[in-house]
Amino acid sequence: MAITAAMVKELREMTGAGMMDCKKALSETDGNMDAAVEYLRKNGQAKAEKKAGRIAAEGLCRVALKDDKTAAVVEVNSETDFVAKNEEFQAYVEAVAEQAVESDAKDMDAFLAEKWHLDASKTVKDALVDKVAVIGENLTIRRFEKVVANDGCVVSYVHGGGRIGVLVEAVTDVVNDAIKEALVNVAMQIAALYPKYVATSEVSEEYKAHEKEILMEQIKNDPKMAGKPDKVIEGAVNGRLNKELKEVCLLEQVYVKAEDGKQSVAQYLAQVAKENGANLSVKRFVRFETGEGIEKKEENFAEEVAKQMAGN
157: which strand partners? Predict the structure, then answer.
């Protein structure tokens, strides 16, 4: 398979590896992007996958809270950043969030088929089509999630004017301003540091095995570890895996506002719980980032002109 400059550029953006390293990885894997990422990680040329996916689409995330126990987060995409800043579009996304917080839909098809809360003569899909006609760009309600906290409360946080939306569900027997403030702080942590799990107990053995395989290859390619006994290598692998898990598990992360720079999120929540006489724990979180995992069409001006000239 021919390796193009665009493929090399994409792999560089995903991994942060050097241009020649990316070109070699693509050649070795016959242009398979996922396999090339694995190749770079195993050879230590990618610190980690730089992005969870190709983040490129425009739009907004918005949240809506019905009360302390019910909330929803939505992502609505537009074609351009210009429209995302448009007041009419922003108001529409707010309305979609309000629809979601009252919805019982389990999937997008059911959600789009619901009656639009601002005009019962239309469905959610009808209202979307109307908004596309008014704004003049293709719009998409990409995803939504509703959280109902039966044994505690839910809080929300929106970052970057709508680039990221977060919900945190907590199990707690005390719901007051101090508890909710602490949970909002945790939501800010989630927005900033992008954990994948609440706790290490949620991490599957399959994930651990996969990461250990990659770490083992990295260590084998490390000249400093050459000739080391298997026991030493195994210890190094486990040490690096535990360090990685602390980065991807919320409760294990260092709390971003920790005064000593060491306090974990779990320790911070335990402190707040003690101060308020509460039993407090994070049950789950939802984090939406605008355009996450969507590949944006990149226009090449030179190519566009060339095509137009060829057509004349």
Answer: 166
- One domain for residues 73 and 178: yes
Q: Are residues 76 and 165 in the same domain?
A: yes
117 pLDDT higher than 70: yes
- Rounded Cα distance between 165 and 63, Å, is 7
Residues 42 and 63 in one domain: no
Q: Is residue 85 a part of any domain in this protein? A: yes
Interatomic CA distance for residues 126 and 129, integer angstroms = 5
Cβ neighbours of residue 104 closer than 8 Å, sequence gap 6 or more: none
250-280 pLDDT, tens digit per residue, is 999 999 999 898 999 999 999 999 999 999 9
pLDDT digits (tens, 9 = 90+) for 147-186: 999 999 999 999 999 999 999 999 999 999 999 999 999 9
- Sheet holding 70-78: strands in order across? 58-65, 70-78, 140-148
Domain count, the chain: 2
Q: Which domain holds residue 32?
A: 1-51
Rounded Cα–Cα distance for residues 52 and 34 (Å): 12
Under 8 Å between Cβ of 83 and 58: yes
Single-letter amino acid code for the residue at 29:
T
Joined tokens for residue 223: 């000249």
Indicate if 22 and 153 belong to the same structural domain.
Answer: no
